[in-house]
Amino acid sequence: MSAHKITSEIFTENDKNSEELSNGSTVTQFIFKCPSYMMKPKSNIIAIKYDQDDDLDIDRNIENILYIEHNVSTELQMVGLQVWRGALLLADYILSNPDLFKGKIIMELGSGVGLTSIVASFLAKEIICTDINLGEILNLIKRNFIRNISYVKCKFHIEELNFLNLKWSQSLEEKINVTDIIIAADVIYDDVITDGFVTTLDKILKKKDSKIAYIALEKRYVFTVANMDTVAPMYEEFLRCIRRRNPNWNIEYVKIDFPRFFKYDRVKHMILMKIENNDK
């Protein structure tokens, strides 16, 4: 009996230009609106512009394209090979807040296909992509960076990191030590992985240099007979893991009303957390 396959909503919400590859994966065009600071300036000065409502100005007439290789459907343990809404929400936040990310060393946990890391590379000093190397995902991330190299404005590194193994390589330890910002999207989908993610993030945030984490996820609701109610079990498990591990975190829920650059359904159940360690 074949395993149950899961498909991201991204590919039912909008028409996308996709091409199937001989290896069974797909390359999809992700169109995004170009923020004014990405436009080629007439001088060496890049001006960040705001509209009359003091919102970041987006040039509505200019669109760019990311070419992302991914799978359209996978088994649960391989969902990192797909693109999910949280990655696009976090990408939007990065593009909406260039001052927060410009010139920073950024590490993504559970990078998946690398879309959010590629967007962060527009602004960062250095990007470190991490994931467990199932399904040759690390090679896939590298291919996606190469496909979009014209946008990449910084050094990038790809390292294996398993949430269930806290014995890190020396190379990974060194990169974690110099990281300024941690980002992660759509990594909350399994009880064991969620607990490992909380433990991993807590260890990283306890490093002596102060770090900030931005975590994007979607509260996925299901009806359960046990509760006779509609609940978001994985989001609730994430909160339980935080309470159980008792990290000294300061958690701020970021409003998700910032500009939308990518085309997707920004549903009200999406969440963006800013997390810092209070031990500092």
TrEMBL record:
Gene3D superfamilies: Vaccinia Virus protein VP39
N-terminal signal peptide: none
Pfam families per the UniProt record, alphabetical: Methyltransf_16
Record InterPro entries: Methyltransf_16, METTL22, SAM-dependent_MTases_sf
PANTHER family to which the protein is assigned, alphabetical: METHYLTRANSFERASE-LIKE PROTEIN 22, METHYLTRANSFERASE-RELATED
Protein name: Methyltransferase-like protein 22 isoform X1
